[in-house]
Design brief:
This protein is mostly helical. It has one domain. About 85% of the residues lie in helices and about 0% in strands. It is built from 10 helices and no strands. It is a multi-pass membrane protein.
């Protein structure tokens, strides 16, 4: 049992989460609209999904990896369609109406958690990202015990969760300075950014897999 496995996992978890893709934009938008806790819990949903893919990568579940590879195109299309729909929903959100609804109806943190979990788990390329990280850090090998791997996976979750806590906390610092007008345009920017990022990422993947 080595404490190094935990630290390696934390570094990998943070490194895999830092790039602000569609989920990062969603966490920022929810923090601004609903508050710090909603943003952080939304990030935890992504952290849980990343942990599952880290388990698949770390324990070399070849059957699941093989299924992902064989159905990758359809999974990518499904995930992209959901994220684009999310971007359109955020783009068309009226902050004044949203605030009135929040006063009438309490925010469901469970819904925030599982929505980002479902969105992140729809991106199966994450398993190959973790394979690359594990190979680069040389933290997975035949000499590893089950405890070593569990510590590594626990570190990945802790690292990812730490990043989402930092991000939501930083965004929350500026939340009080955001009025309805600014929030209206932030929703437009956030929704547009999600759509552009998804289309760009999907186009690059298609060009690499099927064109070049």
């Amino acid at each position: 049992m080595s404490i190094e496995n935990i630290f390696d996992g934390i570094i990998i978890g943070i490194s895999a989460s830092i790039p602000l893709g569609p989920i990062g934009v969603l966490v920022v938008q929810r923090t601004l609209n609903k508050g710090h806790l909603s943003g952080f819990v939304s990030g935890l949903g992504a952290a849980l999904s990343d942990t599952i893919y880290a388990i698949i990568a770390g324990f070399s579940l070849s059957f699941i990896v093989g299924f992902i590879e064989s159905q990758l195109l359809w999974i990518q299309i499904f995930g992209a369609a959901i994220l684009i729909g999310l971007g359109l929903k955020i783009y068309n959100t009226n902050p004044a109406i949203q605030l009135r609804k929040q006063k009438k109806k309490s925010t469901s943190l469970i819904q925030d958690l599982f929505s980002t979990f479902a969105l992140t788990i729809a991106n199966p390329l994450a398993v190959f990202l973790f394979m690359a990280f594990f190979a680069g850090f040389r933290v997975v090998g035949s000499e590893n015990t089950a405890i070593d791997n569990l510590l590594l996976i626990g570190g990945v979750f802790a690292g990812a969760a730490t990043w989402w806590l930092i991000l939501s906390s930083l965004v929350n610092l500026f939340r009080s300075k955001i009025n309805l007008r600014r929030l209206f345009w932030l929703n437009k920017i956030a929704g547009s950014t999600i759509i552009v990022l998804v289309i760009l990422a999907f186009s690059i993947w298609i060009s690499k897999e099927y064109i070049f």
